[in-house]
Write a structure and sequence with these properties.
Blueprint: E1 25-26, H1 38-48, H2 58-71, E2 79-82, H3 84-96, E3 102-107, H4 112-119, E4 123-128, H5 138-147, E5 152-156, H6 168-177, E6 181-185, E7 206-211, E8 224-228, H7 230-237, H8 247-258, H9 264-282, E9 287-290, E10 296-301, H10 304-313, E11 316-317, E12 319-320, E13 330-334, H11 338-355
Helix pairs in contact: 1-8, 2-8, 3-4, 5-6, 9-11
Length: 356
C-alpha cells in the first residue's frame, strides 16, 4: 500500500477510551442510573411516530433553540445546539485555537480538554488544582491566563472528576480580570444549581455549555447546548456543519426540556444517594472522600488500582485514574439506583476487610 499522507501529528493524538464491557453494575461514566420517566418516554415516542424522516431538521432545531432561550430569558441568537456539550466544547476550542494560541484550564478536569486543545493545534496550559481539596486558586488561574495572553480559558463547574465547585464570586473574579473568551462547562450544574448564566449579560465574553446527558439521562441521544452573546454564537456557529443535528435527537431533547420538571425527583434522589454513600465510604478504613456537587463520588484509597481490578473481576465498573496527574489512587463512582449503590459498597467493603 502506498504511504498515505495523514494530517501532521495525527498519529500523536491521544485517544479517549470509550470501550465498554458487559458490566453487571456500570457506574463508571457519570450516566443517569435510570432511563426516561414513563410519561416522558410516552411523549417522546408519540412525537417520534410523527417525524417526517424525509425532511432536514430545520424546524426541530429552531424549536429547541427557542425553548432553551426562552427559559433563560435569551433569544435564539444566544443559543447553539450540539451533539452533546462535548461537540460544543470541541468547536469552541477550534474557534479560539490555532498555532501560537494558548488555552488555559484546570487540572485535573475533563480529560478531553487536552485532546481538544491538541486537535485545535493550540497549546494547552493546565493550572493545577489544590492537592488538599481540589479547589481552584482563581488568582493564580487569572495570572496564568493573562501572563500567557490566552485566547480561551475554561473551567468545568462542578468539576469532573473531583466534584469540586467554584463559587459564583470566584467565577465573576475570573470574568472581570480576564479579557479572553471564558467558557464555563456546566455539565453537572443540575446537581448543584448555582449556575453562572446570570453573569453572561455583564460579561459578554462568557460562554456556558450544558448537556442533556447527565441529569436528563439522554447520554445515548448526544445533545448539548451553548449559551452566549450573539457575536459569539454567530462565530462559533460557523464551525458547525449544516444539519449537524439529527431530528430524532432534537425531538427527544425538546420533549425532555419541556418536561424537565419530571426529572426533579430523580435529580434529588441522585443527590440524596450521593450524600448517603459519601457517609458510607467515609466510614471505611483508609478512604478519603471529597465533597461532591455532582452525581458521583470522588475518593482516594491507597490500594485504588487493586480495588478497581477486584471490582472488575466481579463485573462492577467504576472509574480508576491510574497515574494521571494529581489523580494517583483516585476513584470516581457514579450514582446508580439504591440497590446498585449498596451492591458496589458491599463489594468495596469486602475488599477492604480482606486487606486488614
Amino acid at each position: 500500500m502506498a504511504k498515505l499522507k495523514y494530517r501532521n501529528k495525527l498519529a500523536e493524538m491521544p485517544s479517549y477510551d470509550v470501550v465498554e464491557r458487559d458490566w453487571h453494575i456500570k457506574v463508571n461514566a457519570n450516566e443517569s442510573g435510570m432511563n426516561l420517566p414513563p410519561l416522558v418516554e410516552e411523549r417522546v415516542m408519540s412525537r417520534l411516530s410523527r417525524v417526517a424522516f424525509n425532511r432536514y431538521p430545520n424546524e426541530d432545531l429552531e424549536m429547541l433553540m427557542e425553548a432553551i432561550g426562552r427559559n433563560f430569558g435569551l433569544g435564539v441568537e444566544n443559543v447553539l445546539i450540539g451533539n452533546g456539550s462535548s461537540e460544543i466544547i470541541e468547536k469552541i476550542f477550534y474557534c479560539f485555537g490555532g498555532r501560537g494560541r494558548k488555552i488555559v484550564f484546570p487540572q485535573p478536569s475533563f480529560s478531553m480538554y487536552h485532546i481538544y486543545a491538541k486537535a485545535a493545534e493550540a497549546e494547552a496550559v493546565p493550572v493545577s488544582l489544590s492537592e488538599k481539596d481540589y479547589s481552584l486558586d482563581v488568582k493564580e488561574f487569572v495570572n496564568v491566563v493573562n501572563d500567557n495572553k490566552a485566547a480561551l480559558c475554561v473551567i468545568c463547574n462542578p468539576n469532573n472528576p473531583t466534584g469540586s465547585f467554584t463559587s459564583l464570586e470566584d467565577i465573576e473574579y475570573i470574568a472581570s480580570h480576564t479579557s479572553c473568551a471564558f467558557l464555563v462547562d456546566e455539565a453537572y450544574i443540575e446537581f448543584n444549581g448555582q449556575t453562572a448564566i446570570g453573569l453572561m449579560k455583564k460579561y459578554p465574553n462568557m460562554i456556558i455549555a450544558r448537556t442533556f446527558s447527565k441529569a436528563y439521562g439522554l447520554a445515548a441521544c448526544r445533545c448539548g447546548y451553548m449559551l452566549a452573546a450573539a457575536p459569539l454564537t454567530d462565530m462559533i456557529g460557523k464551525s458547525m456543519m449544516p444539519y449537524h443535528m439529527n431530528v430524532l435527537t432534537l425531538v427527544t431533547a425538546d420533549t425532555v426540556f419541556q418536561m424537565r420538571d419530571e426529572f426533579i425527583p430523580r435529580i434529588q434522589m441522585a443527590i440524596a444517594e450521593r450524600k448517603r454513600m459519601e457517609g458510607q465510604y467515609g466510614s471505611l478504613k483508609g478512604f478519603k472522600v471529597f465533597p461532591s456537587n455532582t452525581n458521583f463520588i470522588f475518593l482516594k484509597y491507597d490500594k485504588a488500582v487493586a480495588l478497581n481490578e477486584y471490582l472488575e473481576s466481579r463485573g462492577i465498573g467504576i472509574r480508576s485514574f491510574g497515574k494521571a496527574p494529581l489523580l494517583e489512587n483516585a476513584l470516581r463512582i457514579s450514582m446508580g439506583n439504591r440497590d446498585e449503590n449498596d451492591a458496589v459498597f458491599k463489594a468495596v467493603k469486602a475488599f477492604v476487610e480482606e486487606q486488614n
